[in-house]
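Agenda item 2: 3,4-dihydroxyphenylalanine complex prediction
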Amino acid sequence: MKEKLSAMRQAAFERIEQAKSLEALNDIKVSLLGKKGELTSVLKGMKDVAPEERPAVGQMVNETRAAIEELLEKERKVIARRIREEKMKNEVIDVTLPGKKKMTGHRHPNQIALDDLERVFIGMGYEVVEGPEVEYDKYNFELLNIPENHPAKDEQDTFYITKDILLRTQTSPVQARIMETGRMPIRILSPGRVFRSDEVDATHSPSFHQVEGLVVDKGITLADLKGTIDQWAKEFFGPDTKTKFRPHHFPFTEPSAEVDVTCFKCGGKGCRMCKGSGWIEILGCGMVHPKVLKDCGIDPEVYSGFAFGIGLERITLLKYEIDDMRLLYENDKRFLDQF
Ligand code: DAH
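Presented output:
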């Protein structure tokens, strides 16, 4: 028994000293001291030892266990330290390396301009609504008093899906959709994407954005339209901005006008931005045509209204003095990062 114990102890010490990892060490521990381990089975053999020898053998077993445990712990510390040192060596921090910047995205310049614009109109009590980009001819043209043979309906201007369904060429169809619901009064703003069969250049794109406005109520006059546009222009382009209404033609408004604002770059003196005129054109507008009201189910004898359409890219380019619309769509980070 004694010889067996000391041989076991010798073998155990050799195995422990050769262990290379904490896992290997743990396996050794289990195989020696575990429930089915070598030392445990020695203990089970105690019943065969003569009674008078049992205390001495028992003590030897305990000593062996204590010695093995002590060596296991010593070896565990050695391995743990070695692992830590290796880790430290591999994880050297080079304090001279440049830091990693967290990149946060931000709104597209078009979106910034739209948010600014919406804020002003929401402040005046407007509701922002959206309409479909794939639209019926009926809303895009017919209900807006754009007849069958109107040049805007030419296939060169419009992307047709079927004879009656197309990609909307303007946000104005939202006017007809809202009026048709019959809910009064109307005070809406409708931004969105529009499509025209245009070649890409510095001021054209087959897909761009407009913001439509519509107000219908009892007693709405041209003075309301002028006051509203003037107020928005002052808040959007600056308090010194003046507006000028130039007579124009749109099929769905009568009278119609185009609006110019005093150049916010030169204040109206004339510069490169306004091509020397001191004025910059920003939108189309007018009083809703009685025929349009009637076709959309509203009695023009009782109600009147005004509408306007703003080209979003146009005011974005103006506001940020960008001279090429393509920059807004190319997604070049060097450009977008400037906003
Ligand atoms: N829809 C017009 C266009 O695309 C813009 C426009 C002009 C909208 C006058 C209006 C308006 O609501 O009253 O050219």
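Discussion summary: Residues 170, 172, 212, 250, 253, 284-286, 307-309 surround 3,4-dihydroxyphenylalanine (CB under 6 Å).
Owner for follow-up: CH.
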